[in-house]
Amino acid sequence: MNIRKLIAALVAALLIVTSVSALADISIGVPNDTTNEARALQLLADNGIIALKEGAGETATKADVVADGIEIVEVQADLLVNQLPDLDYAVINSNFVLDALDAGFEINKALLTEAEDKYLPRANIIAVHSDNVDADLTKALVAACRSQQVKDYIDATYVGAVLSVVDEPTDGYDETVDYDALSGQKLIIAATPAPHAQILEVVKGILAEKGIELDIEVFTGYTEENRAVDAGDAFANYFQHQPYLDEEVAQNGYKVESVAIIHTEPMGLYGGKQADLAALGK
C-alpha cells in the first residue's frame, strides 16, 4: 500500500471512530412509567432512531431497545423537563412542557411529534369513583367538560400542543340532570396544573351558573390523584389517559372509572444539549 492509500485509509478509519464515538454519547430521556415509556420508545422507533425487539408493544422498556451508541435514560415523566439540560434529547408529554413554559423554562419546539394513531387512543379522561359513575353530579361535570366553551378554549389556547377529542360538544349542560337539586353542592376534582387545571377553570364557570362549586385541587405529580378518588378525598380527577388508569387499577385495586374523554396530548422529542437532529444523523 502506497503512502497516499495509507493516509486515506487512516482518515476514513478516523472518521468512522469519531462518528461512532459521538453517537455513543447520545442520551435520550423517556418517561419511566410503563405506558408512557412504551409510547416514547415507539416514537423513536417510528422515526428510525432506535429499533425495538420483536414483540415489544405497550409494555416496551429500555430492555427492548436495539440501538448502537444511544443511551435510553428512564426518568419520572414530570421530571424530564428538569433533566433536559443534562440529556441530548428527551421524549416528553406536552402537558409537562406546558407546565415548564408556564414556570418560565425556555424549551424549543418539538423536533419530532408522534403520529395521530398513537396519541388519539391515549386521550385524557375524567374519572370518578365506581359508585358515582351514574350520579347526576358526574353527568353535570361531564357535560361541562365536553362543552363547546371548553373545546374552543383548548383550540385557542394550546394551538396543537393539546387537542380536543370532543366530536359533539354540549352547551355545557345535561338536560337529564336536575340542576336545582345540585345547587349548593361542592365538587372536588384532582388535576395536574397544565392543561388540566387551566381547562377546569372554564368548567368551573359553567358549573357556577347552576350553583355548583368546583374546587380544583392541583397536584404537581401524578401518583396521588387516583388514590384521592378511591379514598373519597376527591369526587373526580382529570390528569391521565385510559391505559394509565388501567395500570393503576390493576396494580392498586382502585375503584376508579373513566366517564368521559376530553383531550389528547401528543408526545414530542425535545432537544436538550442538541438543538436539532443532526447528532442522530437525521
Write the layout of secondary structure elements.
Layout: H1 3-24, E1 26-31, H2 34-46, E2 51-52, E3 65-66, E4 70-75, H3 80-83, E5 89-93, H4 94-102, E6 112-113, H5 116-119, E7 124-129, H6 136-145, H7 148-158, E8 163-164, H8 179-182, E9 186-191, H9 193-208, E10 213-218, H10 225-231, E11 236-241, H11 242-252, E12 256-264, E13 267-271
Parallel strand pairs: 1-4, 1-5, 9-10, 9-11
Antiparallel strand pairs: 2-3, 5-13, 6-13, 7-11, 7-12, 8-12
Helix pairs in contact: 4-9, 6-9, 7-9
Name a few traits of the molecule.
single chain; 282 residues; alpha/beta; D-Maltodextrin-Binding Protein, domain 2; Dipeptide-binding Protein, domain 3; 2 domains; six-stranded mixed beta sheet; 13 strands; elongated
Can you describe what's shown?
By secondary structure, the chain is of the alpha/beta class. The protein folds into 2 domains: 3-114 and 268-280, Periplasmic binding protein-like II (D-Maltodextrin-Binding Protein, domain 2, 3-Layer(aba) Sandwich), CATH 3.40.190.10; 121-265, Dipeptide-binding Protein, domain 3 (Roll), CATH 3.10.105. 39% of the residues lie in helices and 22% in strands. It has 11 helices and 13 strands. The chain has helices at 3-24, 34-46, 80-83, 94-102, 116-119, 136-145, 148-158, 179-182, 193-208, 225-231, 242-252, and strands at 26-31, 51-52, 65-66, 70-75, 89-93, 112-113, 124-129, 163-164, 186-191, 213-218, 236-241, 256-264, 267-271. Strands 8-12-7-11-9-10 form a 6-stranded mixed sheet, with helices on both faces. The chain is elongated and about 65 Å long. Residues 5-23 have low confidence and may be disordered.
